[in-house]
Design a protein that fits this description.
By secondary structure, the protein is of the alpha+beta class. The chain has two helices and two strands. It has helices at about 35-40, 60-70, and strands at about 15-20, 25-30. A hairpin with a 4-residue loop joins strand 1 and strand 2. The protein is globular.
């Protein structure tokens, strides 16, 4: 069973999504220094990390998903993708 990473403080961070020539897609998200401070595990070179992304198509669907989470089993994270001008 995967171990959930938990931050020590409130985190708000902005960054860029980068284009990968090999995949021909915008698929690389750079993690900023403040996230490494909160999640020191991410500096472990021999460890493996993964993620689960759930896309809710409506606010009501999002609320249902939040209510279904077991307390303490996950660390919810909100992420916005947006196109820059």
């Amino acid at each position: 069973m995967p171990k959930t990473l938990t931050p020590r403080n409130k985190i708000e961070s902005e960054g860029k999504v980068h284009y990968s020539e090999g995949f021909q897609a915008w698929n690389t998200i750079k993690i900023k220094k403040e996230l490494f401070s909160e999640f020191p595990e991410l500096k472990e070179k021999r460890s493996k990390f993964s993620y689960q992304l759930t896309f809710c198509r409506s606010y009501i669907e999002l609320l249902k998903k939040i209510k279904s989470l077991k307390q303490g089993s996950v660390m919810p994270m909100l992420m916005w993708l947006y196109k820059e001008d």
